[in-house]
Amino acid sequence: MKIDIWSDIACPFCYIGKRNLELALKDFESEDGVEIVFHSFQLDPNAKKEGKKDSVEQLAGKYGSTIEQAQQMIDRVVSMAKDVGLNYNYDAIINTNTLDAHRLTHYAKKFNKDREIVEELFKAHFIEGLDIGDIDVLANLGNRVGMDSEEIVKVLKSDEFNSEVDTDKYMATQYEISSVPFFIFNNKYAISGAQPPQAFLETLKTASE
User: Fold this and answer.
1) Where are the domains positioned within the chain?
2) Contacts for 168 with CB less than 8 Å, ≥ 6 apart
3) N or C: which end of the chain has fewer CB within 10 A?
């Protein structure tokens, strides 16, 4: 079983969707035979690297809503996250460009550490309030999962893995993926969005059959 996942580290539903899939896998009898491959998707590829803590204002501007409406949206997302054991800290979130975070994920694949680093990136962004656009922060996150922080800095200061990110984005257009998270099971069955664990479990069973 292969599951391809398109997601962005800055996407709150992507972390929730990832956790819901993991919950479903715990109830899937063939979990050990499941390969998960993460693919890059950028909700805002033009975002500045200089991170800012302005989630409510940014959200209001994006959707043309009031600050109060934007706060209600955030509260709903925080509640959804809490339902799966994730304590989002929206006041601390630093909005930044996620390109280097995606490049780090591709680099981590060389060491079979991509699933671990994706978890650390999400946690750093939504819970710890770390700047995932900062190379030193990314190097420290890589170090958490056993990667060499100095090598990470060298890689991210080069143009390595830019093409891999671009390839993922191109694949997303071919699959007509316009929003994330997006999950494809065995190149045949798809789930869009942060669906509940039961939806993932049913798709897992269908795909395995």
Assistant:
1) 2-208
2) 6, 39, 40, 41, 102
3) C
